[in-house]
Fold this sequence. Notes:
The complex is a heterodimer of chains A (167) and B (551). Chain A is α/β, with parallel strands linked by helices. Chain A has helices at residues 38-50, 89-100, 118-124, 137-144, 161-166, and strands at residues 4-7, 13-16, 21-22, 34-37, 55-59, 77-82, 106-111, 128-129. Chain A has an 8-stranded mixed beta sheet. Chain B is an alpha+beta fold. In chain B, strands 16, 17, 18, 19, 20 and 21 form a 6-stranded mixed beta sheet that branches. In chain B, strands 1-2-5-4-13 form a 5-stranded antiparallel beta sheet. Chain B has a 5-stranded antiparallel beta sheet with strand order 3-14-15-12-11. In chain B, α1 runs antiparallel to α2 and α1 (6-27) packs antiparallel against α4. Chain B is globular. The relative contact order of chain B is 0.09. The model of chain B has no long low-confidence stretch (mean pLDDT 96).
Amino acid sequence: MPTRIRLTPEGHMVPSEDPFTWVADDEDLVQGDLILSLTRFQAEGDRLLSEGRAVGVRVKSDEEVEALAYDLPRIAVVELEFPKFRDGRPYSSARVLRERLGYKGEVRAVGDVLREQAHFMVRSGFDGFEPADGSSAQQWEAVTRRFRHVYQRAADARVPAFEEREG
Amino acid sequence: MYRYDAIDSAFVHDRAAEFREQVNRRLAGEITEDQFKPIRLLNGLYLQLHAYMLRIAVPYGTLNARKLRKLAWIANTYDKGYGHFTTRTNLQLHWIKLADAPDILEHLAEVELHSMQTSGNTIRNVTADPYAGATADELDDPRVWAEAIRQWSTLHPEFSFLPRKFKIAVTAAAKDRAATKVYDIGLAMRRGRGGELGFEVMVGGGLGRTPYLGATIRQFLPTRHLLSYLEAILRVYNRHGRRDNIWKARIKVLVASLGAEEFARQVEAEWEKADHGHTDLPDLELARIRADFTPAFETLSAASEALETAKASDREFARFLRHNVHPHKVPGYAIVDVSLKTPGQTPGDISSEQMDVVADLAERFSLDEVRVNYQQNLLLPHVKLDDVPTVYAALNAAGLATANMDLISDIIACPGLDYCALANARAIPIAQHIATRFADPDRAELVGELKIKISGCINACGHHHVGHIGILGVDKKGEEFYQLTLGGSGEEDAALGQMLGPALPADKVADAVEQMVEVYLRERQGGERFLDTFRRTGVAPFKEAVYADAH
């Protein structure tokens, strides 16, 4: 099972184990809680949820999270996939999930996920991480604490400079 | 000019500390060059042909004496005693050691400078009209908005991994001195019907391999919504711009493939859904930024006896006045150009000693302000007319007073194959060769306004597409050749140049320019500039003159 990191509501990064199993489209379903592709979720999600399982969805960077709008209350985790760290589309997806669709569950970064991205990810609304560079929870937390100030409002609770200045 | 508060200052110091940690990990071998590359590129550190190059941001081209002196000191201490101003108003140091880079960032932070987002697929250093705050033809000081954009775009959580680099330029004047039509986003301030201020928003301009002029996607955006609207444009681009092919990844390709109208519709739809108050700056913050852009001018007479006397007695000073001194919005002041284009020099290069000279002049005579323009020159924006003769003498003594602004020897050139790993051909020697040909100031003046722009490769850092004469270096079986284009302009009459004919070898380029100048002098009518004559006659007479030998 890959190393996973969660962001706590207090802003700390902690190692986490979760019960979900990723099942690729060409694999057979297994017991327990599952994460499926968007297409497979759309085909089989209703049935699996009715069995009382927790289900998560993995959204590729070229898929739009708006497709999940009506399902979000039932989805335990949305994984946003970074095929390459340079692919910045999941940042937009995360903000849309949080700020426009009001999603409260876990938004997890998977794929080419590197600790140098931690600041951008947390600010865009990610709170779960599956690092590909072997980095630890402490290292992730250190990256998110490098900057004492930020300049814009995003999907996190940080107060932007222009608001700090108002006092 | 804008002064950092404790927040801005903490930010650049935090950035320097972050980079020190990252460089230490690299030097200790904990990360590979492949892993380090994207990190250093977020701080403007490139690996070039001979050494590391550090590109330092000069936000909207504005410097003061303290900053310029620090840049001079850094160039002396960590480089070879000179720097290179680029067409994006950045300063490049071409001979940097990796181990020194964290110290340099720390020194920059001390004077409110940084190298953030001068490379990488991010929102790059924002540029603005270099005459901001000094010209009578502006509706507002565009730097207020440029500074708002600088802060908003800095380490933007959503837009730090765009499909490709992204450049924004702002002007508030009718005359476009910021090349806004060849930017990813060009913002030109307009006055609305009710008298309120807003921006015309142009998107998808750009040079490079496939040049485009920007398309207007909104005629009038109320200024207070600038940031939320930019966020909508960037989100559409971030989500839909191509990522499969680096040559098709700029926003211009997205705008061209969707069509400007459809792209505008998508932006508007995105913007409709957005919570504008979440992103737009409150009035109080805009007022705070604006307060830093209000220099204290004196009440002066509109004419200067000292200047007139000097003009009458010194022919070269009179020439300098004709070409390098421009009207100011406040009576008794002038805008004074500092030429980094002495024929024979590398366009845009400046020594540390020269930086110190300009810094001293700015402090004593220009309300402590210096500007960088995209033509790779500097200017002193607020010089009293009475002081112009003194400023001229000091610039002249430092080799900075060549009276050639917008003339044939005021050539834009990228660093080219002398420095750059991407280049196919050298640009600097071509510029030097042409400028030297036209070093006689009387001859240059007779030719008048003629903008030559040279790029060493298709990436077009030297803006060749929008040169009156554009010169593009290409590689033909290992030999440097140059393709000439005519009739381009990067200003309010923007146009892309038209190909002249087959590429020429390096030693024929200056001859060809000379032949074309002869055609122009023969054909021109009345007060026509080279560009006007070309637009009237078309390419034929120029082509005929240059390729006559080949027939």
